[in-house]
Amino acid sequence: VLTPLRILHPPVAKVKSKPAKLPSMEADVAVLFDAELKKIKGSGAQIKHCIGTLKDPQRRDVFRKLAAMDRLAELLGPDAIELFIPYLNHEYFRLRERSLQLAANAIKTGGAELLIQEFYPKDYPDKAIGILAAFALSGDNKGVALANKALATEHEELRYQALHTLTDIHKMKAVDLIIAHLKSAEHPLDQIGCEEALSKLAADPKNTTAIRDRMIKELPKFGIPGKGGAYMVLAKISDKTCLDLLEKSNSTDSKAEFNLLAKALSYSPSRRADQIMLKFARGDKKSAEAVGNHATRRLVLGPKGFGDLTDKEGMDCAEPMIKM
Fold first, then answer.
1. What values do phi and psi take at 3, rounded to 5?
2. Do 238 and 268 contact (CB within 8 A), yes or no?
3. Is the pLDDT of residue 23 over 80?
4. Which residue, 23, 146, 210, 298, has most beta carbons within 10 Å?
5. Once rounded to an integer, what is the mean pLDDT over residues 14-31?
6. What is the mean predicted confidence (pLDDT) over 230-256?
7. CB 97 within 8 A of CB 62
């Protein structure tokens, strides 16, 4: 059965409520797991049972693993942190998020040194990513030295996490280092990490003006890849000062830089960015192509993120773009 979109869309568009939370077996499995533990005599044997449940990170008994993590945290306190390490960067979000939260709690109660002893970024970068993420969540200053060490490695995903860890722990104190890293960054993941870190800081109203003014000051000192990150930070702030500067930046002779500028504007929460992009597109064929490559985001991206705009707002941007 095929239902025309003109019939299907109106009732769907009227729904304002958030999707219901999906049901989960986690609570039921935890009850069953606790029942198993009660049948085992002695805390030592119970700990051994929990450790056995976590032995194979790839085995998909997810909810049993979550229950085992919780019980180990209760039975061992901060010493349980070593048992969570294989899960701190796990591919499955439930296991990763639970282990990170428990590890962060353990760091706050004396478990930091146990993690530091397991931090070998060059030899085990995947494990190091998880350890840095746990320190980031805990906010413990001991994570700063580890993150600085990770920035010097050749593993781009580890450097990306290090940038976020520095930001989460040091906040505005990390700005100088992040900007310096952006200036020398060659890998796209380094550039994205710097942009995300700075945008995260700028999202706090107390920091917005300071981040904006610093990025504008540093902009002429960036190479083209770094300018892409700077443009993105400014576009996500999108106050009048930022948008005025971005509008004037289309005078560049670099095709690569113009493409990065158009991409940044496409992520702006301000509807004024639509008009700036349309103005750019009217310049010449190459400009229109560059803007067109990123303009579709304007049809779905509103002030509060994707989906936060009306159909009319999306069409107000789409119609003149299509005509060009």
1. -105, 125
2. yes
3. no
4. 298
5. 80
6. 95
7. no
Total Cβ atoms within 10 A of residue 75 = 15
pLDDT band at 99 (very low <50, low <70, confident <90, very high): very high
Residue listed under structure tokens 């993590």 = 69
Task: Kindly state the tokens that stand for 231.
Answer: 């443009």
Exposure string for 176-195, b = 16+ CB within 10 A, e = fewer = ebbbebbbebeeebbbbbbb
C-alpha distances out from residue 213 to 8, 143, 193, 216, 280, Å: 47, 28, 20, 5, 24
One-character DSSP codes across 99-160: HHHHHHHHIIIIIHHHHHTT--TTT-HHHHHHHHHHHHHHT-THHHHHHHHHHTSS-HHHHH
CB-based contacts of 257: which residues, under 8 Å, 6+ apart? 224, 227, 228
Long-range contacts of 313-320, Cβ-Cβ distance < 8 Å, separation of 24 or more: 313/271, 316/274, 317/274, 317/277, 317/278, 320/278
% helix, strand, coil for the chain, step of 5: 75, 0, 25
Q: For residue 116, what are the CA distances in angstroms to 97, 165, 323? A: 20, 14, 59
Quick one: how many helices (H) and strands (E) in the chain? 19, 2
Q: Three-state SS across 59-70?
A: CCCHHHHHHHHH
Distance, in Å, from the CA atom of 262 to the CA atom of 231, rounded to the nearest integer, reads: 9
